[in-house]
Amino acid sequence: MTQFSVIxxxxxxxxxxxxxxxxxxxxxxxxxDNFVFDKVLLRADGESVIVGTPYISGATVEGKVLxxxxxxxxxxxxxxxxxxxxxxxxxxxxxxEVEVMKA
Length: 103
Prior knowledge:
Layout: E1 4-9, E2 12-16, E3 21-25, E4 34-37, E5 40-44, E6 49-51, E7 61-70, E8 74-80, E9 85-91, E10 94-102
Antiparallel strand pairs: 1-2, 1-5, 3-10, 4-7, 5-6, 7-10, 8-9
């Protein structure tokens, strides 16, 4: 069993281990910067598991920001058949790609 942690960022939870690349909600950091996640919910190594209530005090996960980008466009199309109403909208979500250095 490998060492991993569960972190919370952007209202979502991610299971990460060292060397993973994850796409998370946009954070305020520049490309190449180091970022520290302090909301660690769970930490597991080979034989022991530590669960926070809700977070583990003093535990951090370090990562490096690889990119600030936008995902593919999502089309929102609303249609009402009898009244001939149509609405077409598009949306591109911002995200940050992070490589986990130490979990």
